[in-house]
Amino acid sequence: MSQDSPSQSSAAQSTANRPEPGVAPVAPHGDANRPTGNGVKAGVGTGSGSRTGGALPDWCPAWAERLGDAYLSGTSCVFLLHGNVRDLVPLAPPGTGQSASAVGTAGGPAGAADGMVGYGTVPEFLAREVFGSWDVVLAYDVGKGLRPLAGSDANRLRTMVQWLSERLGNAAGWPREPDAALASIDALLERNLTDPPEQRKKIAVLLDHAQYLVPDGDTASASRGTAGRLVRLVGWASNPLLRRVNVAIVLLADAMAEVHSRLVTSPAVTAIEVPLPAPAERERFAMATARSVGVPAGDLPAVERMATLSAGLTLESIRAILTLSAREGSPPDGPEFAAKKKDLIERSCRGLIEFIQPRLTLDNVAGHEAAKQRLETDARAIRRGQLESAPMGYLICGPVGTGKSFIAECYAGSVGIPCAVLKNFRSKYVGETEGNLEHALGVLRSLGPVVVIIDEADAALGNRQSDGDSGTSARVFSMIARQMGDTRYRGKIVWMLLTSRPDLLPIDLKRQGRAEVHIPLFYPHDQAEMEAMFQAMARKCHVRLAPGLPGPVDLELGLSGADIESIVLTARRKGLERAAAEADAGRPVPTTDEIAVTDLQAAIDDFLPSAQGLEKEAQEIAAVLECTEKRFLPDRWREAISKAGGRATLQERMAELRLMAGS
Fold it and tell me: What is the mean pLDDT of each run of 10 residues along the chain (663 residues)?
C-alpha cells in the first residue's frame, strides 16, 4: 500500500515509540513493551490498515496478525514462517487504486471488480505490506544473494540501494555465499545500533529457504559453516538490543522440521505457520482470477462451486485449474476437476499421500455384520454433521487377508468423503522424514473431512524409541500422536489404522481420544458368512457360482477372503481348461461364465492353506485382546473372554506364541 496513506503515518508513529537502546521505555497506557500510536495498533509499523483492538483488515492473512502481535510485544525480533510459504497472498486492500498483478508474475491482473487489487509472493507481501514503511528491506537466499526489496516503488528502491551501497560497497560485489552474506548483515545491524538514535534505520531482513542456511541435524556433527550460521541467528534472536529497536529478521522455510531444532526451539524465535488458504480466500481469489482469464460469466457459479471443493489446493493450483479450464472451454467444476485436484495435491505432497475416490460402500462388504453396523452408524452421524459424536479414529485389526483395507475404503464411500492413504514418508536424509510428514499433515488438516488410511500402522508410525535413527522415529511418533489427539478435527480427519499385529502398536495411539474404536476382523466363522464371502469373491472375479454353491465348507481350513478369491479363480481356470479339452475333442461347449460344482469342489480339495498357523493364531488373539466391543467378536471368542480369567488366559497364550515365533 502507498507510503503516504494515513494508516501508514499512524504505523510510523507506532514504531517510532519503540524504545531505543539505553533509553527508558515510554508507555502512555502503562504497557512498557507494546508501542502505541494515537491509540491505534498498526501491523509492524507499516500502515497495512488501521487495526483497532488488534484486528487486521479482512483481506490480510491471519498469520500476518500473529507476526505483528509478536513483534509489537517486543518479545521477539526473529520469526520463522513455515508451511505454505510458496503460495500467493493478497498485496493490497480494496479501494486503494494501486495497480498490481493479481496472479503474481505468471498471470495477468485479476479483476479489481472482486475487491482485491493484487496477489504476490510471501516475500513481496512482507516487503510491501508488513514492512512497507520501513527504511530497508534486505532479502537473501543462497540462489540470488543479497538484494533489497521495495515492491513497485522505484524511489524507495533507489534510496535503499544508496544507503546499502555506502555500507556494503557496490551492489555488484554484495556477497552471495551464506557465511559472508550473514556476516555482512550482522555488520549492518551492529553499525545501525551504534548510530545516533535519530539516524537509525528501520531494517527488516528476509532470509528465504532457511532450511538450506541452517538445516536440521546433530549439532555436534554440523559443519563449521552451519554451526557458525546457527550461532549467529540464535544470537540475533536473543540480543536484547535488537529487540528494542526497529529490526526484524524473518526466515521462510517450507517445513519447520527441516530447520535446525536449536533455532526452532529457541524461546526467542517465534514460529508461525502459513496455512493453506481458507474457503473465503479460495472463493475470493477464484472469482477474481476467473474474470481475468476469461471464464464466461455464465460459468461463475461453477467457479464458486469449484472454490468450495478445492480444499487442500494452493491459490497457485486454483489459478492453474481456472486457466486450463478457460483455455479448454470446460466447466471449472466438471468431471475433470476431481482428477486435476487429485493430481495437484499428490504432486504438491511429493507422492506422500495417495487419494482414492471410493466407489463402493459398506453394502459391498460381505460378513463382519457387527463391524459394518457400527461403521454405518458413525458414517450417518458424519453425514448429518453430528461431528461431536464421531470417533477420532479406528483401529482395524485381524489376521492377514480379512479385508481391512477394503472395509476402510468402503467406510469412506459410505460417508461420502475423500479417502487418503498415507504412504511411506520416511527418508534416509536427516530432517526430511519429519518435513515430509509435516507437509502431509498440513494438507490433511486443510482437506477435512477426510478418511486417512495408514496400512501396516505398527511399522509405519514408529514409537517412542529412537532405534538408532537420531530420534527420527520418536519425533514421527510424537507428530502423529499430537495430530490424532487434536479434538478440533473430530469428524474432519478420521484416522483408520490397519494392522495385523495391534499388540506392536504403541498404546499411546490406541487410547481413547485417538484410535477410539478397535474393530477386529476374522475369517468366516459360520456357513452363512462363508457362503456370503464366496458370492462376493465371485462377483469381484466377474463369474457366477452354480446354484447351491459353495455348499458346506470345512471351517477348520481357516480360509481368508484372499484364500477364497484364489479358490474361485482356480475353479474358473479348471472350467476353462475342461471347456478347451471338450472343444479339442470336437464336442460343442456352451459359452458360460458359471462355475460348475465339480470345478469348485476340485479347487477346494486342491487348496492348501498357509502353513503359518502359529502366526495366524497370534494375530487372531491380538485382535481379540484389542477389541473394544464384545459384539464385534464371533461366538467362540466372546465365550472365551467371558469366562473367569478368560483375557488372562489369552494373554498367556499370546506370550507363548511370541516365544515360539521368536518375536
Answer: 36 38 30 31 39 52 90 90 93 48 32 54 92 93 93 91 92 90 94 91 96 82 81 93 91 91 92 92 90 86 88 89 86 79 78 81 90 93 86 94 91 87 69 77 83 88 64 79 90 92 90 92 89 88 87 84 90 88 74 83 86 83 94 93 92 89 62
Q: Rounded to whole angstroms, how far apart are CA atoms 84 and 87?
A: 6
Contact predicate 623/398, CB 8 Å: yes
Q: Is the peptide bond before 449 cis (omega within 30 degrees of 0)?
A: yes
Q: How far apart are CA 6 and CA 99, in angstroms?
A: 19
3-state secondary structure 242-279: HHCCCEEEEEEECCHHHECHHHHCCCCEEEEEECCCCH
Which residues make Cβ contacts (< 8 Å) with residue 220, sequence separation at least 6? none
**Are 256 and 438 a contacting pair, CB within 8 Å?**
yes
Q: Is residue 46 helix, strand or coil?
A: coil
Report the pLDDT value the prediction gives residue 33, as an integer from 0 to 100: 34
Query: Could you tell me the pTM of the whole model?
Result: 0.70
- Residue 259 exposed, middle or buried by CB count within 10 Å (0-12, 13-18, 19+): buried
For the beta carbon of residue 590, count every other beta carbon within 10 angstroms.
Answer: 7
Give the other-Cβ count within 10 Å of 44's Cβ.
28
CA atoms within a 13 Å half-sphere pointing along the CA-CB vector of 166: 7
- Count CA atoms closer than 13 A to 141's CA, side-chain side: 13
Taking the domain 356-520, which CATH number applies? 3.40.50.300
Pairing mode, strands 544-545 and 594-595:
parallel
DSSP per-residue string spanning 388-447: GGS-SEEEEE-STTS-HHHHHHHHHHHHT--EEEE-----SSTTHHHHHHHHHHHHHHHH
- Which residues are CB-neighbours of 216 under 8 A, at least 6 positions away? 257, 258, 259, 260, 261, 430, 431, 434
- 387 CA to centre of own chain: 21
Q: How many residues does the chain have?
A: 663
Distance between first and last Cα of the chain: 65
471: left (phi over 0), alpha (psi -120 to 50) or beta: left
